[in-house]
Amino acid sequence: RAQSVGFVLPPQNYPLYIRSVPTENELKFHYTVHTSLDVVDEKISAMGKALVDQRELYLGLLYPTEDYKVYGYVTNSKVKFVMVVDSSNTALRDNEIRSMFRKLHNSYTDIMCNPFYNPGDRIHSRAFDNMVNSMMMQVC
Q1: Number of C-beta neighbours around residue 74 at 10 A
Q2: pLDDT 10s digits, 29-52
Q3: CA 55 to chain CA centroid, nearest Å
Q4: What pLDDT is attached to residue 122?
Q5: What is the reported pTM?
Q6: Residue 19 pLDDT more than 70?
Q7: Which secondary structure element, helix H or strand E, spans residue 138, and what is its range?
Q8: Residue 29: what are its φ and ψ, rounded to 5°?
């Protein structure tokens, strides 16, 4: 069965949110995502001022492995979204990944607007979970 994993990481790179479908093997994806953070930082540095000017937050394919493809997205406040999808999923297009990250970013913004959420705390939101789960089912 195909796997997909989503991570939300603040600028300090500790996980605010992790969702894995199916849930087994979640731990092995920590390494994959942690490794991808170097690529995210490289891409952000390479974009530099262009990132701010054109507001293009989608980083695209960070790197493919034999089994997975790792995609990245960064917000203006340097919060990173990382998605790991099964390499066998050839139907998934770049535009669809970009659209998923935008939905994720919009849902994350809704959480930030909640006066009861402390920025930097782990994300515990049923609405966010539902949105992420529907995205993951689309990917699997």
Answers
A1: 24
A2: 778 888 888 888 888 887 766 655
A3: 17
A4: 94
A5: 0.86
A6: yes
A7: helix 126-139
A8: -80, -20
Helix (H, G, I), strand (E, B) or coil at 19: strand
- Residue 74's contacts (CB-CB under 8 Å, 6 or more residues apart) are 40, 44, 51, 57, 59, 80, 81
Cα 75 to Cα 10: distance, rounded to the nearest angstrom: 10
Cα distances (Å, whole numbers) of residue 102 to 22, 26, 106, 132: 23, 24, 6, 12
Q: Does residue 1 carry a pLDDT above 60?
A: no
Q: Which residues pair with 86 in a beta bridge?
A: 68
User: DSSP assignment of 20-88, as one string?
Assistant: EESSTTHHHHHHHHHHHHHHHHHHHHHHTHHHHHH---EEEEEEE-SSEEEEEEE-TT--EEEEEEETT
For 76-135, the pLDDT digits (tens) are 888 999 998 888 777 788 888 899 999 999 999 999 999 999 988 999 999 999 998 888
- The SS3 call for residue 120 is coil
